[in-house]
Design a protein that fits this description.
heterodimer, A: alpha/beta, TIM Barrel, 10 helices, 37% helix, B: alpha/beta, Rossmann fold, 8-stranded mixed β-sheet, 4-stranded mixed β-sheet, 25% helix, globular
């Protein structure tokens, strides 16, 4: 049986791990290579490195961190942040990334999804979507959740699947940072629309939220979270044992 | 030394890195002389079958690899590299494979329930058909390995070593003679995957 996946996400700026709450008020936590090693040993199914670096120098620090991590950790590694053109895929894929997550870059240039999947394969193109309810509809936001694009999230998900995205990350701005559980309604709507794997993000505050996620929305393949893992409030091993006890298939 | 064939398809960073981590010497190459002098060969690959086999042939690699395989040199195909080992593929057309193993590559979609995702992406457990296979020397039944694929091998009963349940029996590990293949990515499957790469480096 295929398992549900538990994915810690590391926001990285200038080579250090940070985590925003509702995308604002970022604070420094730990060394990314150390943290990646720790997560790998505790049973993470995948790692996401999200580059929030603004400067050119910081970007170099990021790719160094990526390469050092990929040299010793042999589980899938996804990289996101500042992916705007096909050559950005090249930059991280040659330094150890297995998948590349596109968000604003694909909104600004939708052809990027197809161009990247044709060149590197769908398996490495992850379409990440920041979604918020606006007037009863799901809208795609960009620039880290600050700007409403007016794009319908369900249409965008379907467009991504059709043009070669291999997976979707659904990040609910409405539940992100609130720590009161994943956005089941939003996730169900996306899962009803596409057949590619869906990764849920935004809202995890405790172990029971993952159980509710996987039991509540059968189409969700993975749960992604950051702060609850970084601050060691929940260990990945304990979480997986708990979920297996709840009857959910887990790699332990 | 293991030659990892570089024919412009896929990301070889992790594969070379995982062998280095195991202390196994490898070279990422498309040089025929290096492939001939290597003790073992790995054929990686991601993306579409038609595009990959065309590139592989355009580099003039097929006669050299076929000659080495005929001489008995151990070969391991990974993911799309495993699919290339079969006779043909029905991925967006009909393509002739390398034919080192009996079988065909077909889409998952018509063969599995509609509630299962395509591609299959993630960790799935292995069921052993031939537990005494040399590639399973350091593995145990139930080990989880990482898959990413939309197509799978059919008609490969004579080479089937291990499979995973995904609405159908997906061949995960195949082996016949000196030719091995994994549908999953051992270089991305944590300790379970490294164990198989280590076993491959020891097969004779």
């Amino acid at each position: 049986m295929i398992t549900k996946r538990i994915i810690p996400c590391l926001d990285i700026r200038d080579g250090r791990v940070v985590k925003g709450v509702n995308f604002e008020g970022v604070r420094d936590v730990e060394d990314p290579v150390e943290l990646a090693r720790f997560y790998n040993e505790s049973g993470a199914d995948e790692l996401v490195f999200y580059d929030i670096t603004a400067s050119f120098e910081g970007r170099g620090l990021f790719t160094d961190v990526l390469e050092r991590t990929a040299r010793e950790i042999f589980i899938p590694l996804t990289v996101g942040g500042s992916i705007n053109e096909v050559k950005d895929f090249e930059r991280v894929l040659t330094r150890g990334a297995d998948k590349v997550s596109v968000n604003t870059g694909a909104i600004n240039s939708p052809a990027l999804i197809e161009a990247a999947s044709k060149k590197y394969g769908s398996q490495c193109v992850v379409l990440s979507m920041d979604i918020k309810r606006v007037d009863g509809r799901f809208h795609i936001f960009k620039k880290g959740g600050r700007e409403d694009t007016g794009i319908d999230a369900l249409e965008w998900a379907a467009y991504g699947e059709e043009h070669g995205a291999g997976e979707l990350v659904v990040n609910s701005i409405d539940t992100d940072g609130v720590r009161d559980g994943f956005d089941l309604e939003m996730l169900q709507a996306i899962c009803d629309r596409v057949r590619i794997p869906v990764i849920a993000s935004g809202g995890a505050g405790g172990m029971e939220h993952f159980a509710t996620l996987f039991k509540g929305v059968a189409g969700v393949d993975a749960g992604l979270a950051a702060s609850i893992f970084h601050f060691k409030e929940v260990s990945i091993r304990d979480l997986k044992l708990f979920l297996r006890g709840e009857g959910i298939e887990m790699r332990i | 030394m293991i030659a990892i064939i570089d024919y412009g398809v896929g990301n070889l960073f992790s594969l070379a890195g995982s062998l280095r981590h195991l202390g196994i010497e490898s070279a990422v190459t498309r040089d025929l002389g290096v492939i001939r002098s290597a003790e073992r060969v790995i054929l990686p690959g991601v993306g579409a079958f038609g595009d990959a086999i065309a590139k592989f042939r355009a580099f003039g690699l097929e006669p050299a690899l076929s000659a080495e395989v005929a001489k008995g040199k151990p070969l391991l195909g990974i993911c799309l590299g495993m699919q290339l080992l079969f006779e043909k593929s029905f991925e967006f057309g009909l393509y002739e494979g390398l034919g080192y193993l009996k079988g065909e590559v077909h889409p998952l979609t018509p063969d599995i329930p509609a509630d299962l995702k395509v591609p299959q992406i993630g960790w799935n457990s292995l069921r052993f058909e031939r537990p005494d296979d040399p590639l399973l020397k350091y593995s145990k039944e139930g080990d989880y390995v990482y898959y990413v694929h939309s197509f799978y091998a059919k008609g490969c009963a004579d080479s089937l070593v291990a499979w995973s349940e995904y609405g159908t029996r997906v061949p995960g590990l195949v082996h016949r003679g000196n030719v091995y293949g994994t549908q999953f990515h051992p270089e991305k499957s944590g300790a379970a995957g490294l164990a198989m790469l280590r076993a491959f480096a020891e097969v004779v």
